[in-house]
Design brief:
By secondary structure, this protein is of the alpha/beta class. It is built from 14 helices and five strands.
Amino acid sequence: MSTHYSHLTLDDRIEIELRREQGESSAQIARKLGVHRSTIGRELRRNSWQPEHDHANARPYLRNKLDSRDPHERLYLAGQAQLHADRRATRSHQPNRMTHNPLVDWVITHLRRGWTPEEINGRLTVEFPDDRQMRVSVETLYAWIYSPAQQHRGLFQYLARGQKRRRRKHGRSVHAERIKYRVSIHERPEEVGMREEFGHWESDSVVGAHGSGGIHTTIERVSRYYVGVKVSKVAAEPTLQAQLGVYQGLPAHAVRSITADNGSEFAHHYKLADTIGVPTYFCDPYSAYQRGTNEHFNGRLRKYLPKGTSFADLTQAELDEYVWEINNRPRKVLGWATPAEVFQELSSA
C-alpha cells in the first residue's frame, strides 16, 4: 500500500516557528503536525539559516533575533521558509536545457550517426567518466529533440522511427496461417525464453513496396546479432534458401532453434529442420511481442529503408552495410559492447 505524501503548507510552517520558539523538539512538532520527525528535520535544514550570516540592518524588524549569542542556533521564520520552498518548487523537475556546447555537439554528431538516445546516454559515461557536464538522461534527450526550440534542426529524423511527434509504442500484429507441422512457441524449451543459452534466433520478413521483393531478417537472442538477406519475394522457398545460407555457415552451437511469426514464408520450416536439424517454433497469432527483439531491430533497419521503399534496386552489398552499422553500435543490454563483438566471442567459444 502506497503512502500519500503532502508538502508542508504555510500554516504548517507557522506552527513550526511558534513551537520552536517554545522550545519544542522536532519529534514533538512532528507529532503535532502528523508527519515524520525527519520531515521537520529536513525542513529546518533546508529553510533556516545562521543569524550571523545576515546583517542585522537587512531585516530591522528581526534585529533582536539576529543578535543571537549562540552561533550554532539556526533561525527559522515561516514566511522566509515558504519563499525558499516556493523557489525550489519552481526549479524542480526542470529539464536539462542542453546548454553545454560540447555536449550538444557530441549528441548531434552521434544522432546523425544513427545512435539512439539510450546509446548516447550510456556511452557518455564511458567517453567522459569525470566530466559531469557531459551527461544527459534518455528522457531529457527525447524531450530536447522534440522541443519547439529544436524543431529547426530536424533531429527527429535521425531516430529509429523518424517520427515528427512522439507517439506511444504499438506492436505489429502477426496473422495466423495454416502451416504444416507447425510447433507452438509454448513447446519451446524454457531456457530459450530466458536468454540463457547462445544460438537461439528470431526471424521475420521486411517487405519492399509494390512487390519489389523483401528481406529475410534473423537475430540471435543472446548477442542481438542481426542478419539480413535480400530475397526476390517473401515466399517459402526464397526464405528457406536465405535461412540455409545464413545458418549453414555457422558452428552447430550457434544455431539451436528459430522462433518465427505465422507468415507463410516460413511454411518450409520442416525442410530446414530436415537439412540442418534446427526446429522452428511459431508465435501465437497477434503476439509480435513474443519475438520482440526481431521486431525492434527490423525497426532499426527501417530507418535505412523506410516503409514504402522499393527494394528493386537494393543490392545485398548495400544491405550488408546497413546491417554492419546496426551490429556495430553499442547496446545497453550488452554492457555497451556491440552485437558483433559478443557474437564473435560466443560463436568462437
